[in-house]
Request: fold
Amino acid sequence: MRSRDLYSLLLIAIVAGVALFINFAPSQSFLGRDVRFRLGLDLQGGIQVLLQTTSATVTKDEMQTAAGVIERRINGLGVGETVVQVAGNNRIIVELPGVENPDQAVETLRGTGRLEFIDSQGQYILTGTLVRTTGNPNPAAKLTNTNPVSGTATLTPTVATGPIYQSITDGKDLDTSAVLPSFSQGGTLGGIPAVAFAFKGNSARSLEQFTSANIGKPMCIVLDSTVVSCPRVNAALPNGSGIIETDNTESRDRILNQLKYGALPIPLGVETSRTVSATLGQDSVHTSVTAGIAGLIVVALFMVLFYRLPGFLSALALMIYTAISFAIYRLIPITLTLPGIAGFILSIGLAVDANVLIFARLREEYRRGRDIRTALELGFEESWPAIRDSNASTIITSIVLFLFGNSFGVSIIKGFAITLFLGIVVSLFTAIVVTRTFLRLAAPVFSERNAWLFGIDRRSTPSAEPATTAEAM
Reply:
């Protein structure tokens, strides 16, 4: 028994030490993994975009594929802790925390990523013009934000008019592995930002033939039916490869991400775009931290005053519980939202619920005449069914909440459900393993003289039973 308790104590010390190292690591890295806190949209600000397909018929698989393409594009932007969820049959919710350039991000999201080279019939078409091509003769209206300074975008549609231009290439033939950032002047850092590309199949042959026959004439580059540029053909493009010059690195990165991470299987338009203030997020973080600390202190004081030494040991286990929970949040990682923090604070109270049942049973068994070690083991054994059933019901509730939030794109419900679920699981470990080990190690110092320290006594009760000796577990 003694050696087993010491092994359990060693395990607890190792787990607590790793958790504290993860939480307070100066480099914010553990085994090469980034363990910084991830804050959600409501805590650090950013934008929330609701995308809706403009296609009349769309399948569930197409929506899931589109969500995957959008997520890869966002990762290419370097935006962390994003949320991309399919909502309903034709909508996708995208949350981008900490985005510095909302307009660029929105444009990257909605573009289908279809690249075409067209024969402009010897004309230079103005950059940004929405055109009709043989590959896409009736493009969806382009939505333009005409009120960029407002918290909510004002989107105005622009419809393509004019002739239908001959497409030289087909966007499906684009080799995404060859799409790379580049510079136009020999690849030097002082050159013009550009995107290297390559087509394959019939498009590669058509592009090479067209450029060979039209040297000195303009050829327009079209992305999602919008003219990117109309460069003059200076030489043939062998094997259908070349570069697209851009005005700046922001435009280069936007085009790169749209082409690199695949074309959307369906066209998407921005239904709404909302900016979330970072100032409100900071206030929420400070308020939540204060509430969490206050909750820990109040719960710990209650346990110490009411249960004395066992209460103190449970408060120590509660500190370990907090350290392990935060380490898991960092390691998985879990994006903390305001509802998620609320779920964690709620789980603080639930974390000591098992200890209350155990200590109450411990008192009852001791008053029946059991010795302290037997009363301790029986306290854990007899209270386990109630602990198991109550925590199982809470776990089931959190799973249902998570599935509901995931199905309907309600991320705030998911955050609450995840932190509540993890809180229950970790609290079971701290109550059954940590608190039990601490009490077993403290049991040898118990005597009738210091029974008050354990918050128990030998008061007789009508149901008192004669003392029995049970084998300690």
User: Anything to note?
Assistant: Residues 46-276 form one domain.
